[in-house]
Amino acid sequence: MKKFLLGLAFALYGTAALAACKGVDYRDHLPPTVAARLEQQMAATPFATGNHWVARKGDKTLHIVGTMHSGDQRMAAVMRTLRPVIADADAVYFEVTGREVASFRQDFIKNRDAFLLPKEGTLSQVMSQAGWRQFQLYAKVTGLDLKAVERLQPWAISTFLVQNGCRPSGFGVRRGLDDRIEKFAVRKRIPIGALESVETSLQAMVRIPVRDQAKILENDIALLMSPRPDDATATEAYFDESVWQAFLLLPWITQQYVDSPPRELERLNRVLNESLLTWRNRKWMRTLLNVQGDTVVVAVGSAHLPGNSGVLNLLKQQGYRLERAAF
């Protein structure tokens, strides 16, 4: 277990050599009824589109930039637009900074309990019988050491071991927009800060009930073992500045390949989004409302921007005026 955890710690910082995403954009293949529902859902979502918004209140100006954590060659053009904005900022804030991730890696073993099932539990105890059998097959096909991972919480396996060209593992992946913005800010000697600690990022996963974590992992494995092509919907929607479409479509895409009731897939999607997005967005507001500097860039994953509990709507509720900006 110690050897595996050390390897997992390395995965926390991401990799630079993952294959490029060359999958299918499911938005191009939607039945008319699904496309119509998607349009209705987007219309009902506050700030559903846009990767760069300016929030103003009094003397404070916040540039809210929605990022993609993984790399893509199209990021170069995005950075050409954003560099002047970043260069004029008094500070730049991220979900977490690269330095904090590096520090967490050094003390990773001290934090290992966040990754382990409680009370000496094992994956076979929390997964369904069918899900465990499929996971055993997946491990055999991929060469995954079951003994090394049997005590990990399911979220850790989904996050760090289930990946493809369209889904890099871990967080803080190099050459993503966050990484590019941070390196530019450091070069320009602009102060940088974080909206949360690495521990809080992990807590967002740990707070999901273990049984739901297991169901999400089972669906992830079922997708990988199915004939489904890599899903490039989120990547393409990001560059269309409409990434929320991918989040709304995820349950429908999953049900095309996974034998699970649609309502259950919708429920699991809500559970995941509540922890990964809503819960964190609300915690971030304490920092966002007290950032240092008159002009500040805030770079967070683009899915944190839309919705009633999205960062933009929460700022609007605090009296900020919102205007979409160039991206």
Molecular structure report:
This protein is of the alpha/beta class. It has helices at residues 2-11, 32-43, 75-87, 98-106, 123-126, 129-142, 146-149, 154-160, 177-187, 198-206, 210-225, 233-239, 244-255, 262-288, 311-317, and strands spanning 52-57, 60-67, 91-94, 192-194, 295-301, 321-324. Strands 4-3-5-2-1-6 form a six-stranded mixed β-sheet, sandwiched between helices. A hairpin with a 2-residue loop joins strand 1 (52-57) and strand 2 (60-67). The model is unreliable at 9-19 (pLDDT under 50).
The count of DSSP E runs of length 2 or more, i.e. the number of strands, is 6
Number of domains: 1
> Which whole number gives the mean pLDDT?
89
Rg over C-alpha atoms, rounded to the nearest angstrom: 20 Å
Low-confidence stretches: 9-19
- Helix-strand makeup class: alpha/beta
Largest sheet: 6 strands, mixed
Tally of helical runs: 15
Strand content: 5-15%
Beginning-to-end CA distance, first to last residue: 44 Å
